[in-house]
Amino acid sequence: MQWFEAGAMKILTVVGARPNFMKAAPIIAAIKEHNGRLLADSADRPEPQVETIRHILVHTGQHYDDLMSGSFFSDLSLPKPDIHLGVGSGSHAAQTAEIMKKFEEVLLGEKPDVVVVVGDVNSTLACALVTSKISFDSDGSRPVIAHVEAGLRSFDRSMPEEVNRILTDHVSDLLFVTEESGVQNLRNEGASLDKIYFVGNTMIDSLLNFKEKAEASTILEKLALVRQAGKNGGANSVTRYALLTLHRPSNVDNRDVFLNIITGLEELATDCPVVFPVHPRTRRRIREFGFEFGLGGSASKHKGNAQGSGNWRDGIILTDPLGYLDFLCLMKHASLVVTDSGGIQEETTILGIPCVTVRENTERPVTVESGTNTIAGTKTDTIRGAIRRQLGRKRENGVPKNWDGRAAARIIDTLVRRHYEKTSSRPALIPHAVPLEDRCPSP
Ligand code: UD1
User: Fold this and answer.
1) Is 302 a catalytic residue?
2) Is 89 in the pocket of ligand 1 (CB under 6 A)?
3) 343-351 and 324-333 helices cross at what angle (nearest 10)?
4) Hey, CA dihedral for 11, 17, 21, 22, is it positive or negative?
5) Which of 40, 154, 236, 294 registers the highest number of CB atoms within 10 A of its CB?
């Protein structure tokens, strides 16, 4: 076995908005696992003094509702944040600036060795930017910036997330990539190969870890999506249904675009119930635009059939935003998912559920190439056509390279090794969880 000793390392991880939590949880778990392994291995050694990783979790408060944040901490067994910045909502500029001001104070107080930022939300960019310019001493020393989910590109700069992705990557020191397109994009933008690590997808680490636990969710019963077995016995069965999420400003802030999209869902909603957990932004727009959907939260209200009797909008079941395990359970059992989210394209790929993405592009091409995703655009006809095609598709299980549940272990291995190379002159102690040759594909 190969051993390395790293001096004490302090890692600070930033989370802020809903899609960050499932990406960060496996990293925190991998640190715990690393420390546990280190302590167990050191128990038999003559000099049992070992340096475990110290970890600080910072929540910016970009998302703050229990439904958008709190419930994810319990579902994903995340520790309570050590520091909460309590920033809340605001314009992009106000929110980003507020996070930056408060995060600078945290950095100066904590002086971590590494700052880990995940994904592409405003909190990601704000904290990476602050870290890139901080200086702890007259030598200008600052933490290493590690970006998890680096290199994804939609090539659409009107998306705030695309701007966040590009800028975060360009100020980061370590670029942890989820799919091969990310390596290529970073190389095209001039990133040097020694910064890039193709580790896989920590969001998929969470999915694989919690897939079984999600089966205990009672959301299908709550939404009346379970058909009881008849008197003659047999098992209860899940009603055929589709799952919908929409929250991108470009889709829901413009009445015409939003209307095009929901009209594209009309045929689907007469065929089977469409469960629609509604993001706060989308909820506001539905009210503002006077769009009326069935509000009962129960599939038993679904009157539709293939001929389309009844009001199709009754076939859309609105719910509040759901927790991680409830949503995972709903994804697993859906016949089809329609979404404008990035992460859901990846999760449906691993679950083998056909996915229709209502956007003009994706920054996650592997979900189309080897997954179950199709890009439908936002026009009524193209959405309707994509839904028909995807409903006829067999469920299949594409597994992109390195989406194997070990991404976070690779990240921690890499951080420990880099820290060791920087700080230690002695041989020693840390067994690598993952062969380093797996970390990056050949350029
Ligand atoms: C943010 C991310 C987006 C991610 C999404 C997931 C950016 C630029 N965007 O978008 O990439 O896909 O999170 O949800 O960072 N609100 C609440 N409760 C909350 C949080 C927000 O009611 O806990 C409301 C606020 O009124 C706010 C609106 O939702 O104005 C939007 O929240 P915001 O954080 O600005 O962006 P998201 O659209 O959620």
Assistant:
1) no
2) yes
3) 50
4) negative
5) 294
Indicate the residue type of 416: V
- What angle is formed at CA 345 by the lines to CA 277 and CA 303, rounded to 5 degrees? 40
Q: How far apart are CA 182 and CA 188, in angstroms?
A: 10
CA-proximal residue: ligand 1, atom 25 (nearest) = 89
* HSE value, Cβ hemisphere, 13 Å, CA-based, for 336: 23
Tokens of 114: 């590494």
Alpha-carbon span 347 to 329, nearest angstrom: 12
Measured torsion, CA atoms of residues 253, 90, 22, 345, in degrees rounded to the nearest 10: 20
Compute the distance between CA of residue 212 and CA of residue 84 in angstroms, rounded to an integer. Answer: 31
Q: Give me the residues paired with residue 54 across strands.
A: 10
Locate the ligand 1 atom nearest the alpha carbon of residue 95 and give its number. Answer: 35
Per residue in 192-224, pLDDT (tens digit) is: 999 999 999 999 999 999 999 999 999 999 999
Cα separation, 393 vs 415, whole angstroms: 41
pTM: 0.92
The predicted-structure confidence for 341-375, as pLDDT tens digits, reads as follows: 999 999 999 999 999 999 999 999 999 998 999 99
